[in-house]
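hi!! sorry for the late reply, been swamped w classes. u asked for the two structures so here they r. pasted raw, havent cleaned anything up. first the sequence of the first protein and right below it the tokens
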Amino acid sequence: MSFLRIKQLGILVAGLMLSGCMATQYQSADTSSFKPRDKDLLSKASYARTPVAASFRRAIVDYHRKEAPGSILVDSDSHYLYYVLDNGKAIRYGVTVGEEALAFSGIARVGNKREWPDWIPTADIHKRMGGLPSRVAGGPDNPLGARALYLYQGNQDTLFRIHGTNQPEYIGTSISSGCIRMTNEDAIDLYDRVKVGTMVVVLEPRRSARMASWGGSGSTN
């Protein structure tokens, strides 16, 4: 093989590594582990089954930050949630995050977790969005979706959640009232991995440059 050909192949491999193609392992939703209730309610959902953009599909990626395995980190700018694994890996999920003025950031813990939770709009949401009921029963078209992780600081409920959604078309955007939304399939997957007490780190917006330095926001080499 000529030196020029070897050089061209080297450039190609380097480009693939920088793009994350060689380290990213995309995963399909494994519905075989879903409970009968999950399968029944998801089959009755009336929202559009909009496919998530390829870059926001669930994937195994390299992870170079120092959060302990079992922790959650949310990169608000890049719209990714990471569940940290052993051996420098993480499961990366695409998410919807809050609009800048409403977004949560900081360190919290999972203080509670619920399957098919009721939605109780906060006073602030009632103020911004008139005409809402006081409670919406859990179900396939509930805004909290199939699962919810309740974020606490100390013993105080922050009122922010990581939860499923009936609007999968917005995964990868910043439009929520502050909560972190996932597809219902991803929310079930994360819920089954997470324990009460799990640490959750939510980076403040406009920190993508820092994330890029360790490969967490799309570059997975």
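now the second protein. again sequence first, tokens right under
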Amino acid sequence: MSGCGCEVELKDDQQKTVLYWLLAINATMFVFEIGLGWLSESTALIADSLDMLADAIVYAIALYAVGKSIQHKANAALVSGYFQLGLGVLILLDIARRLVGESEPHSWFMIGVGSVALIANVICLMLIRKHNNDEVHMRASWIFSANDVIANLGVVLAGILVMVLEQRWPDIVIGSIISMLILRGAYMILTDAKQELVSAQYTSEVSDKNKQSTCCNSK
């Protein structure tokens, strides 16, 4: 049975199940957060909702990579990293827009929605934690989930500070920190994916050389 590939198929099925759950949770939370974030005029909530959307897309990319070669998985992680990078920049642009505007975030919305999102992402983190040392596409998913929990804690903290201080700057500051967190995650994922691609290329070249050497010796 050791050569039938059953263990690989079981691992792939486990990854797919986890990623489907992560995709469903993040897609649902994006719709929930973006609507209430817009109503509450909260930079931190909008930033977190866009992070949820990015994660949902990233998990869909990771699903595509399950069961495929290491090159496919590394390229999937690479796409995910670039997507996260673009998202981080987009959030920074929105923060700059809000600095010029007169938006006043609603603290109770931020605390309530942030708490719900925190619970959702803790569930995601628990689902993915057994796969944080798997292939590169699953490691990328782990980084996203861990960053989300930190971002949600930041949203709740921003809501509390906005309520206590009666100022909007904690919302903008936390939104900026979330964008920095997203950019840091993108850097980590891109670095990991590129290293995997280099390693896969080296392994492929060594394998080709060995095949050529074996062929020559047989002649």
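hope this helps!! also noticed smth abt the second:
The two ends are 35 Å apart (CA to CA).
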